[in-house]
Specification:
The protein is mainly α and about 260 residues long. The chain contains 8 helices and no strands.
């Protein structure tokens, strides 16, 4: 899928989760719903760090473009060194390492650790990165024609405001983990979820996605999981824009109403 659909699916996933936990009797405070939605929408772009032409490559100018090049090379090395005998050698790393469940858990745990270790400053950096990515994904056309600096300023302002809101008692810093120093560990959850949702979205396309690496399937470690062939589509095709994106909007909208308590859970 393309960047806008990935980000929208990430937002819908967190709002759907918010509705589910509200029904289960452990509702999220509204700041957790908002922050988690932005984090998940931004993180749903992150697996494409292995591709220089992806939306994420332009999010932070030369820095993100260079990082995409490094991740591409790293992914290529990991793929070629772990591939099964029947899998051909590759010169590019797109849809390999960063499109797997271990990577999703790794980045989720990494950001959780950063938030718990550096407290407010860690939270600010995490929010800044993912708000910028969310803007790039959800407001793709507007972000493309605007100045990168304006998008960064918007991300910084939102990060500062949201971090301050989370700090207020009862606003959700300790929504999931309440131990001393563990208040912001939950920030890694929407980030990992966003990465997983990205991979599931790519599994719907023609190429599939090796989500379960390194578990061997049919003799392949990088087996491209996906729906039956007749149900797959090309990234950016009409089914993505006319069917999936409206469906994500409906799911996200309904989920938000339940998660925020605007309709009965």
């Amino acid at each position: 899928m393309m960047g806008p659909a990935h980000s929208l699916s990430g937002a819908a996933a967190w709002l759907g989760l918010g509705a589910a936990v509200a029904v289960a009797g452990h509702p999220m405070p509204w700041p957790v719903v908002v922050v988690g939605t932005l984090l998940c929408a931004g993180a749903a772009l992150a697996p494409d760090l292995d591709q220089k032409s992806a939306t994420i490559s332009r999010a932070f100018g030369p820095l993100s473009h260079a990082l995409c090049g490094v991740i591409d090379k790293l992914s290529t090395v990991v793929y070629n060194s772990t591939r099964s005998r029947g899998e051909r050698r590759r010169s590019g790393g797109h849809r390999t390492l960063t499109h797997t469940w271990p990577w999703a858990l790794f980045i989720g745990a990494g950001f959780s650790t950063a938030a718990a270790t550096w407290d407010r400053w860690g939270v600010l950096v995490i929010l800044f990165i993912h708000v910028v990515l969310a803007v790039e994904g959800l407001l793709w056309r507007m972000a493309r024609v605007s100045s990168d600096v304006l998008v960064w300023l918007l991300g910084a302002a939102c990060a500062w405001i949201l971090a301050g809101v989370l700090e207020e008692p009862g606003n959700g810093a300790d929504w999931l983990f309440s131990g001393a120093g563990q208040e912001y560990l939950w920030l890694g959850v929407p980030i990992a979820l966003g990465a997983l949702v990205h991979n599931i979205g790519d599994a719907l396309t023609i190429s599939g996605c090796p989500i379960l690496w390194p578990i061997p399937i049919a003799g392949k470690r990088w087996y491209p999981l996906g729906t039956p062939r007749f149900m797959r589509f090309r990234a950016g095709a009409r089914v993505e824009n006319a069917v999936l994106m409206p469906a994500f909007m409906v799911v996200g909208g309904a989920g938000s109403l339940v998660a925020l308590g605007l309709i009965g859970a």
